[in-house]
Amino acid sequence: MNQTQKQSQIAILILRLIAAFVVLILAFLIGYIFITGLPNVSWKFLTSPAKAFTAGGGIGVQLFNSIYLLILAMIISLPIALGASIYLSEYAKDNWFTSMIRTAIEILSSLPSVVVGLFGFLLFVVQFNYGFSIISGALTLTIFNLPLLTRNIEESLASVSDDQRQGGLGLGLSKYETIVHIVVPAALPGIISGVILCSGRVFGEAAALIYTAGQSAPALNFGDWNPFNIDSPLSPLRPAETLAVHIWKINSEGIMPDLTKVSSGSAAVLVLAILIFNLSARYVGRKIFEKMTSMN
Amino acid sequence: MLNTKNKSDRFIYHFNPEETEITMQTKNLEVYYGKSLAMHNADIQFQKNTITALIGPSGSGKSTYLRSLNRMNDDIATVKGQILYQGVDINQPKIDVYEVRRRIGMVFQRPNPFAKSIYGNITFALERRGVHDKRVLDEVVEKTLKQAAVWDQVKDNLHKSAQSLSGGQAQRVCIARALAVEPDVLLLDEPASALDPVSTQQLEQTLRELKKDYTIIIVTHNMQQAARLSDYTVFFNLGEAIEYNKTRKIFTRPKIELTDDYVSGNFG
User: To probe the interface with A, which of B124, B131, B144, B164 has the most A CB atoms within 10 Å?
Assistant: First the structure.
């Protein structure tokens, strides 16, 4: 073996070790969280309300809040992100205005979430007088989520081959028809993967919600689904502590006797949910694409 | 080698309009990318129900010319001059460009089936135009796939994704898709360049059949293909049409030295 080959093999070995180290950190973290947390997770834990002073509390309300906030935030941000990314990817010319939009998106996506949270607090909670509520939280999460989602969707659209657009125009379709009926469907797997990945990020977000959706989870009446009643689970004006906020809250000021159990159980559920989001993103995108292309 | 002495010499065949039915022709066509002139000097007439091949080296303007014919260059380049289709100048702002592209269909270099089923690919443009009668659509699918000579291979899988087809089959589904909106003229931009020899041969056979009903204009890099397939050939070089004549004459007795150099493989 000559000198060059030796060098190259050593380099490859070092790179492998670095890669293994990264995987090891992740495996250790997830392993630790699951081993300490999962034994505390039961159906009762997942469905019963939290208790502030006594043992045996669950995370039912927080879990529901997390999911409901995520869905609301996505309902608000997806159409905006879709519109913005279609504009950027398909219509925007390369000029100062477009580059200004792109810079704005970059900056928005790099803002610390606690800053976004305080902005949401000033604007939605105080100025608009929505109070600590689901709607304040969802709007803040939209600000937090929008840049990433827009960029994700824009990349999916840009990765659709130009041949597809030409094909549509060549059949005598307008540019708009081509985009809506050919380009967006072709980009759908990527868009769906992007939405799921963003969902994972939103689901685990705490800092942006502490001052907007609030830190309390009042008991909900799961028999009442009228969104206009304040104790209905669907009421957008009730405060809603999410799972991630709950973990932060009980660790900083919790006084229940089984604090560590609740905390590690909640963390395990949160990480598991985010793992599912991440791992399913690609798979779901591909499945939907297969379904879509083989019909009609 | 490139003979500069004869560079400006050109020979463009002109039909006698009394005897020949001209489907399309261009007059004083000039295409600019930004401010630079990419293509000019190509007053070509296309006879009905013939195949005309556009040949020439890369960057000679042949694809630019082809794409101007159904105004696919609209957003990319500035096209000046006249494009006459059935006697009407279609290179005017008031002309409905979508109708132009329906009548003058296009098939592209790489097969580009949409992310839909084979059936959905073919019926898509019709459905956008408001045709929803299942019986009509079924008929169109069968007819166009038969015209494109791919019906027997896909008839049992019409609801399979068109993107799962092989290159040759996908390209023929794309031809069927173009035929579904009932064009008169079919423009093909190097349609066989991504296909294997067998698929290429089948494609050529298909085009020979289609000639009976359509006027076909095809850009090709492959001179044997032009010689085998076409009735007329235009040789482009450096952004202008150098020679336009019957294919047989272009390949046996070209009138311009540059054409001779190109078809005999001395440059390009």
Answer: B124
